[in-house]
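User: Hi! I have a protein structure encoded as tokens and I'd like to know what sequence might fold into it. I'm fairly new to this, so please keep things simple.
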């Protein structure tokens, strides 16, 4: 008998946000009615329910990412201390219920004092139990209240095997999605006491993790980053949220490639396709943002008063706005809502643990890789990616633009891997490696600007002589600015090759 994964599937829970206007639609879902004679309705029990969150006048609990709430139900009152914002070392994606730290009938003398009420939820707790189902569904429907603000809110809690599949179906029919923040964090924000946020940027792994833990942490962290920036990206008022979402997406897709041998499974394949779809909507607005605020702006200044150039730049701005409109529509779509649920499912269930490849020796290797120490995995993975970058050798003078572009792509993958693993190897060598790699990427990126500009210009409609003239101006301007990039690339390349790898 091969040594294959023996993990039992963990109980799966989701806490999702539902648009208040869609409550009636939820209650009409066929999965809540079953297939009993005369379509007997599900067992629905509603009870009054309230939460009153407390904190010190200075906001000590919120600053630590904690929430302390009085929970009032028909059976009485209890104090609950929860991890309102996930701990920096926890693999907790958006959609995962808050970790319960303690629960008491009376206030704990160890809690900070004095405590004051800062926000409340008041509404109903509906227990919706589908007949003959192993899933429990709970609806919290009511309002969040603070001193000077109130907001209608609904949360749907699903527990049990099959919860993710049911949530995916419902997300296709109604506005049900993984929330960017917990209910407690939303309440504190409504009160003006903004809690400590999820850490943004690149995930930081730790050497005491396994490969399995490290990948789950990366997915949870980057899912949180993506959902954090999505509301601002939907508005499209400034470019930074789209940029940050795209960077997080690229990091996540790079991590999937990096860890694939250990975590491959059908659910990961499905999530990968969903991430690719999101990339198709993030790419155009970001590319046009970079062009209109960079090369396009510079061309406009250099050719001020040139009507064909001005017309081309106006067309570029319209294309940028269309990219943002398409992105906003995607962020309101079932596909977006299902992506958040799929990422939460990956982290909470870790389906790669339960997937057994057909070949017995491959199944054994799969399980061994998941249990392997992350530090050993990191060293091997970083070396593979470094070898891919440095394969062309010390002399780049004879390489084409396309070959340099390949180096840029490999260096980006190495950079993402370095960002993941660098905290495991602290020191000056690590910092120097990152600096030199980023400098190399920057110069390779400048050389690539001409190719990107050419691709963008080809998307703009126009057959007139004036249009082709303006396109030529843009392409020539970008090419002239990149003229010195080759010399800079070769100097940076030599410095990059001379350094020591920090993982050896």
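Assistant: Happy to help. Inverse folding works backwards from shape to sequence: for each of the 504 positions I chose a residue that suits the local structure. Here it is:
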């Amino acid at each position: 008998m091969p040594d294959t994964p023996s993990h039992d599937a963990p109980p799966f829970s989701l806490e999702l946000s539902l648009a208040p206007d869609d409550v009636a639609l939820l209650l009409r879902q066929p999965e809540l009615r079953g297939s009993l004679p005369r379509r007997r309705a599900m067992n629905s029990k509603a009870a009054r329910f309230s939460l009153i969150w407390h904190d010190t006048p200075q906001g000590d609990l919120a600053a630590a990412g904690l929430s302390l709430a009085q929970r009032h139900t028909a059976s009485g009152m209890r104090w609950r201390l929860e991890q309102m914002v996930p701990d920096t070392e926890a693999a907790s994606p958006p959609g995962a219920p808050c970790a319960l730290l303690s629960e008491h009938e009376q206030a704990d003398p160890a809690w900070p004092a004095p405590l004051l009420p800062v926000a409340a939820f008041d509404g109903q707790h509906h227990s919706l139990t589908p007949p003959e189902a192993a899933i429990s569904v709970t609806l919290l429907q009511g309002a969040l209240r603070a001193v000077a603000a109130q907001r209608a809110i609904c949360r749907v809690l699903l527990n049990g095997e099959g919860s993710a599949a049911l949530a995916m179906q419902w997300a296709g029919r109604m506005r049900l999605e993984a929330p960017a923040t917990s209910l407690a964090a939303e309440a504190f924000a409504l009160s003006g006491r903004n809690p400590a946020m999820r850490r943004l940027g690149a995930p930081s792994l730790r050497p005491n993790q396994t490969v399995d833990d490290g990948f789950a942490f990366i997915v949870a962290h980057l899912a949180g980053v993506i959902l954090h920036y999505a509301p601002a990206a939907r508005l499209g008022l400034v470019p930074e949220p789209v940029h940050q979402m795209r960077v997080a997406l690229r990091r996540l897709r790079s991590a999937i490639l990096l860890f694939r041998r250990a975590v491959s499974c059908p659910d990961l394949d499905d999530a990968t396709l969903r991430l690719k779809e999101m990339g198709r909507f993030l790419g155009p607005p970001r590319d046009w943002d970079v062009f209109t605020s960079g090369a396009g702006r510079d061309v406009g200044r250099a050719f001020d008063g040139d009507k064909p150039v001005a017309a081309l730049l106006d067309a570029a701005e319209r294309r940028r706005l269309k990219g943002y409109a398409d992105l906003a529509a995607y962020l309101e779509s079932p596909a977006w809502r299902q992506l958040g649920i799929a990422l939460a499912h990956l982290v909470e269930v870790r389906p790669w643990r339960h997937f057994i490849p057909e070949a017995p020796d491959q199944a054994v290797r799969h399980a061994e890789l998941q249990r392997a120490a992350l530090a050993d995995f990191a060293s091997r993975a970083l070396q593979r990616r470094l070898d891919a970058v440095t394969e062309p050798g010390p002399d780049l003078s004879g390489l084409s633009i396309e070959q340099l572009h390949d180096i840029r792509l490999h260096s980006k993958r190495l950079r993402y891997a370095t960002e993941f693993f660098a905290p495991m190897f602290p020191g000056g060598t690590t910092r120097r490696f990152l600096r030199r790699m980023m400098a190399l990427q920057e110069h390779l990126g400048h050389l690539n600007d001409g190719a990107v500009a050419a691709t963008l210009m080809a998307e703009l409609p126009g057959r007139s002589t004036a249009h082709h003239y303006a396109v030529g101006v843009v392409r020539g301007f970008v090419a002239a600015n990149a003229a010195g990039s080759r010399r800079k690339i070769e100097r940076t390349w030599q410095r990059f090759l001379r350094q020591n790898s920090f993982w050896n």
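A useful reference point when you look it over: The radius of gyration is 26 Å. Feel free to ask if any position seems puzzling.
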